[in-house]
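tool=predict chain=A
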Amino acid sequence: MMDPDYDLFTAIVEEGGLSAAGRRLHISAAMVSKRLVRLEERLGARLIHRTTRRLALTPAGEQLHGDLRGIMAALDEAERRVTGALAIASGPLTVTAPTSFGRMHIAPYVGHFLDAHPRVTLNLDLSDDFVDLLQSRADLAIRIAADPGQGMTAHRLATNRRILCAAPAYLDRFGAPATLADLKAHRLLAANGQLPWRLVGPDGPVSVEGISHVRTNSSEVVRELTLSGVGIALRSLWDVSGALARGEVRQILPDHEGSADVGLFAVHPPQPTPPLALTAFIEFLAALYAPIPPWQREAIAPGQRRP
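tool=predict ok
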């Protein structure tokens, strides 16, 4: 058994609040707060930032929680070895993912996962809205971001390479920009909130300001506008690699791409011993996307830069 105050700290993190942790441990929120302060004073470090809206782990808190998760996992494994328990992934699993990515790069492979883990009941929820895992009922979120979420356990599955591209019809009509500055004279396409573009080139990071030629809240609409020759877009390779291979779009200004800080992550709330269904799905995706994601294995048309 671990120190009771460590159990309390773990409960606060997993439940996302003092009151919820108190309900789990059958003590008052005031007592939870008092014991948390006692633990922080004993360790000489602030573990959790408290605000009126939510809690966030400090670096010391993240370190402690990670260490405690490792200890709990080791204890659980030791118990399984002693009891001879057979570990089988089972039960419900709710996964949320961006709409296009989920449709293109998760849904086609779900059958293989369920064949390997027939006792798992999978709910795949596709949405472009940000899903707060501490507020929703989702077990796992697939996120494409530079920051997968503070206080979350994040598994980086792949780098999200993004390129500037346009359809041949657009380039035939307006010409291809020769320099980044030339983009000011072109029609740019981006969903709401996606401009300015933050790129990396030979001279380092650069920002491209602009207003989308068509305003939309849908990244899928931007993709269709790009394919139909309306303008130039910054698109993830997972979204347009097939179109590149078929010549439906062409990469432009290949020396400048989206920042490599943006990655593909599997994210879930920290917990000492994640359910086997959860870890099995993460391992399935990791094997699927590594060492080279499927969208980077697709043949690129002659003359195009290979991923």
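Residues 299-307 have pLDDT under 50 and may be disordered. The chain has eleven helices and 14 strands.
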